[in-house]
Amino acid sequence: MKAAYINEKGPAENIIYGDLPIPEPKASQILVKVGAASLNPVDTYVRSGMIDMELPEPFIVGCDFAGRVESVGPEVSRFKPGDRVWGSNQGLLGRQGTFAEYVATDECWAYPTPENVSDEEAAAISLVGITAHLGLCRDAKLQSGESIAIRGGSGGVGSTVLQMAKAIGAKVFSTAGSDEKAQVCRDLGADAVINYQTQDVAAEIKKLAPAGVNVWWETAMEPDFDLAIGALTSRGRMIVMAGRDARPPFPVGQFYVKGCSLYGFVMFLATPDEQQRAAEDINRWLAAGQIKPRIDRVLSLSEAANAHKLQEENTVKRAGTIAGKILVKP
Q1: Cα separation, 202 vs 187, whole angstroms
Q2: Residues 74 and 136 reside in one and the same domain
Q3: 252 burial class (0-12, 13-18, 19+ CB within 10 angstroms)?
Q4: pLDDT digits (tens, 9 = 90+) for 220-241
Q5: Residue 307 is part of a domain; what is its CATH number?
């Protein structure tokens, strides 16, 4: 099979497009013929060695996939050949990745794809969707009628959090760095959008929610805790899911006097049951059209190295040249 893989950690140029054996599904594994795979910042961190993980050799890059079950291992009970599935959490913690014509994954990391959802949509929503659900539902426990502020609601995770929060029934405020991105947030359902380039975010949130917001979702790699905690109401909750090396100042007094809570997490350490619960809601919302992933472009699997370069330019260097997920198709 064709695959995008590395023999050693390092720059995107280390990615090889070539032939590897088709994996054989064992025990509770399913073999999936990949229809689409999507790229995430964490894929570049694992490939480069920024995240120190033991990797198989050779190592196929990629976390997310969607496709059709080709065959199943002897202990599989949830799927059969021909079923359409999607999933994430591959290419991590010793598991092989998804940038290949076929991927073998344990059935606990796979979920049925709704009939009216394409492989491209399912692959694009997978990691960001599970991430958004874990933060909103498991940790922040966002409720209908509450309010949430999202720092950057037009990005991959931010746009998913925005749509999911609306599906839950929350009032959603978002920041954006341009008029174009602000319009994207409005189109996704934001109740109000603040252009942080031209407006005072703290002052605008105070106008929108005088008593403060219930939840603040931080997408920036360098959180502004003074801004976020200042915007929270009593017993407000804040989510952080980026900024591995960040060491920003923290307003301890304001945080504890308000009785706030701070949650940090990475989705790939969530249990299979937690991710399964997230997938069930994601499927329901996808099928109903309440959430839809933003896809910037679809590339050939042979362009995997270029895809990684493009992702790094936007994640690390903040080039601003993509507006949604990068997908690859075998």
Answers
A1: 23
A2: no
A3: exposed
A4: 889 999 999 999 999 999 999 9
A5: 3.90.180.10
